[in-house]
Amino acid sequence: MRLYHHPYSDCSRRAVMTALHLEVPVELVLVDLQKGEQRQPHFLKLNPNHRVPVLEDDGFVLWESHAIMQYLADKTPGQTLYPTEIRARADVNRWLFWCGGHLASAVGILNREHAIKRLIGLGGPDPAEVKRGEDLVREFVGVLDAHLAGRDWMCGSALSLADFAIVTPLTSLLAATAPEKLPIGPFANVQRWLARMQTLDAWKRTAVTLANPNGS
Length: 216
What we know:
The chain is of the alpha+beta class. It has 8 helices and 4 strands. It has 2 domains: about 70 residues, 3-Layer(aba) Sandwich (Glutaredoxin); about 120 residues, Up-down Bundle (Glutathione S-transferase Yfyf (Class Pi), Chain A, domain 2), CATH 1.20.1050.10.
């Protein structure tokens, strides 16, 4: 089983963290986004959307990080990251969709303005876009903070795919820029949850900075 990824990619990181936590025997294949490898014909055959991650499992090719996370969990006997009970699973799915549709998009605006543009030589941040991103992040992190009140984990009493999905867009920007670039300081419940997530082995093994793209 191969997992094509890049360490700067939030979507890649959540899939890799899931694989590491589940101890799935995957071969991690680096796709060099800065060199444009994601647009080369051999990669486009795997994912015509030219995005990472992509999972290849004995001829079966799967893209979209949340789908990959679900697939890895379903292939792992006895796992607890993705519950089988219908309502518990629906709760996890709800937060996966929320992350993809709302939080990740909002953080992505700030990530592009503060980190990606500088990385690929597109100049400095656009103040209007920064304000738009900050407003959206505050809105959605406010939802997250209210949900985490009195909770250790996103869903139920245990770590789940929802935790891995949501932590990646938040921590990637913190790694790429000064912490004040992400306006989440006032959200105490989110800060407490982030601190707990950062103690996980899978998180530590996938942590990167722009100065250390190969991870730690």
